[in-house]
Amino acid sequence: MLPHIAKQSTQTSAKVPSVTHTRSHLSPEAVHNSAIVIDTHADTTQRLVDEHYDLADPLHGGDFNFASAKQGNLAAEFFAIWVRPDLCKGQEAHRTLALIDAVYQQAAKHPGKMRMAFSPAGIYAAHREHKLAALMGIEGGHSIENSLGLLRDYYRLGVRYMTLTWSNSIDWANSSGDEGRPGVPHTPDGLTPFGKEVVREMNRLGMMVDISHAADDTFWAVIATSKAPVIASHSCARALCDAPRNMTDEMLRAVAKSGGVIQVNFYSAFLSQAYRNALLAQQPQVDKAKQTLRDRYKAEGKEVTYRDLEKIELEYANRIPRPPFSDLIDHIDHIAEVAGIDHAGLGSDFDGVGGQLPQGIDSAADLPKITAALMARGYSAQDCRKILGGNFLRVFRQAQAVAKQMQSAPQ
């Protein structure tokens, strides 16, 4: 889904070099093909439900399908389970279950191309069978409808991470998407007691705690609460693009200290300050066009859908030139230097940003370009493999190890 564009924020940053670049004798193609490539966020799930899209079909304007994944040597994809709160109010769990079912249906329909995976071992098993490993992550804690029981049910169904918020704050956690907005309730400590209970229960289950979209105070509350490494499934560096959704250098280091990983988002408005500024300048026109559509639909007795609103957003966004591919690599490079090479990864947001990707990235087929660009900057084959998926696999294993310890502890 197209992320909410919030106002500017400020920070100071200081790079701490922590990456030693070593030239590799292997070709970029060989390095990329030798890696377990993992992308931790694609919104293709919405297409599966709303458009009855099949992953075996041509892209039809999208970013992800079986063909592009194979061309990009993508081993594992986390399908985002995202429920638009304003269109599904009171039906959050119903929509969540429909999205989860859609992923399972694709695996059942194409057993030779994709299999469900729920652990690092499952990812490796799918890779050995030359199949795409399909995993799931909930985007937005509103999906649990304030119920730990639902949280546990989602884990039983295969969900392996959850962002505590989307662009909307909820009863127990604050979102970066509406921080400072008048009339939006704000949790003073970042997490309520129930919110801390959610984090601890996720730790106990082995569901990774995802701080993408969280407000800064909620981020720090999570860092203080979680017993397992935390992840940012699709976030960028605020030092390079001053978006509240992006992470300050202090936050990058905190994730690294927790043992976690920051998966870089490919959305142009999180990568490029110039692109972001142009998008913000358009926002009043976009809001006006959306309201006009809502008013017309209401007069005609129709309901506005997510896709109706997205079309308006895309119409305006497409007027802005896409930023250079190098901006994406700059964010990976910055995170690797500030947090350390063991704490950077890829979280594309494919099919969630309306094609607003940097130049050179049009689908999952273009993932090898990232490896080539990193190696051109002097990254070793080992470092590339870490960024492409090795770092995330480590964190996934650690989250499961923490869960095993918590489950075996005396109650």
UniProtKB/TrEMBL annotation:
Pfam families: Peptidase_M19 (PF01244)
Gene Ontology annotations of biological process type: proteolysis
InterPro entries associated with the record: Dipep_AS, Metal_Hydrolase, Pept_M19
One GO molecular-function entry: metallodipeptidase activity
Region called Disordered, residue ranges: 1-25
Biased composition (Polar residues): 7-21
SUPFAM superfamilies given in the database record: Metallo-dependent hydrolases
Gene3D superfamilies given in the database record: Metal-dependent hydrolases
Species of the source: Paracidobacterium acidisoli
Name of the protein: Membrane dipeptidase
Domain of life: Bacteria
Record-linked PROSITE patterns: RENAL_DIPEPTIDASE_1 (PS00869), RENAL_DIPEPTIDASE_2 (PS51365)
